[in-house]
Amino acid sequence: MLKVYVVGLGKPNMGMGWPYHRFDIVAAMKEYREKLQRIGESKGIEFHGYDVPEKESHIIQLLDRLENENFDAVLAISLTAEFASLGPPIFKIADSGLPTVVYTKPFSTYWDGAGRLYEGGYKVVVCDSNNIEDVTPIFDVVKAVVKLKHTRLLLLKDYDYDIKCMDPRVKEPRWMGTSYFRRLKEIFGIETVKRSIPDVFRYYEQIKETDANLLATEAINASAGIFGPTEGEITKAARLYLAVRNMMKATDTNAVTIDCLSSIRHKTLPISPCLTISRLNDEGIPAGCEADVESLITLCFCHYLADRPGFQADPAIDEGSNKIIFAHCTAATRLMGDGQPRFRYRFRTQTESFRDVAIETDMKANEEVTILKLIGVMGAKYVCWPEITAYKRFEGYHLLAYKAKTVKLAKLEWGCRTKVAIELTPDEIETFKRNFYGHHRVLLYGDYVKQLQLLARFLGINFVNKLYLEVK
Fold first, then answer.
1. CATH 3.40.50.9100 fits domain 2-147
2. Given a cut of 90, is residue 330 above it in pLDDT?
3. Are the C-beta atoms of residues 406 and 268 closer than 8 Å to each other?
């Protein structure tokens, strides 16, 4: 249940101003309260407060209450504007750091303050509408922010590796230290639990063969067939899924990413975790590959905003057809959400090794999709020669979100098993190529660009309505 504090911004018995002379703010707040109670009952939101602070001391008391009583968000309602704009109280309330929705009805104020609130970096969204019911979808985004704060991420990764199996140039840039995890907590509220691949084995050994067989049989019967792996290998994959589920329960985590490529290259797991990742996403649990934490957080955005999994993938460019093709071996099958028909899928081997178990999902063409990705940017200065790092500094997170449409794609055996394509103009392809630095992208069925823009605002991070980030 979302807990929201409602505050009215206005002056009783105002002599001059909008909406008109001596506007009755008590009656207005009563009407808003009745409407908000109906919204709350239908959307699972508790609205409290309904204060109209008149003095500076009232604002201070309000801010103390927001901090002490664990409210999730604030709804500030513009009632009157004596001097044609929202006054100082809104900026003081926004400074609480809580997600704040400012509702202004036309002519309750002349200037809604959105420009200053947005440019000031406040975690605020302004809703200008005749109907207060229009704040409802904004609070759906606030719910996603609250879910992020209750996310405990399980990172399954080994930091030691054999250079015969893994290029240090690949491994070293993926280092994540204390400051990295501290940022996740400070910005998103996400806690991280770190475990190694050998830890997974202990849970794997505890799974009964009969339970794994039962799950494997169910998954095989629901599929379009097996093309490559054996039924025994699929049983191993089912056993690994059950092990990771038990591990998440034991660690009290609700999202997971696995350093799968390293485990496949080093053969440190009994089987690849592709089925594990696919099935967890089908069940509404954010799950990602390659220990890519930023992609996992992006998958959290998909689950929390859209109630459906995203598809973490590698983009490849085909200039001949003006397509970007997204490919991976871990696709979910309920990509339209729980309760919707499952996408057709089959069991294949993992492409890079031609062994283990991967998922090939038949992705739908001619569908609106959102391509999104959370990207953190570091600034650095180097001294040459040889190249020595003088300093590195974290500059901030950016959330990319771009609306596109999927197109038909001929079957390809190259690259990861599941593939889906979008078509762009030649200029868009060229711009993407110039500004792509090898990060995953996440494909989400449906248009969620607006919601993601609001999410970025509430998180206090930069929003970019593009497929790429121009790094300058």
1. yes
2. yes
3. no
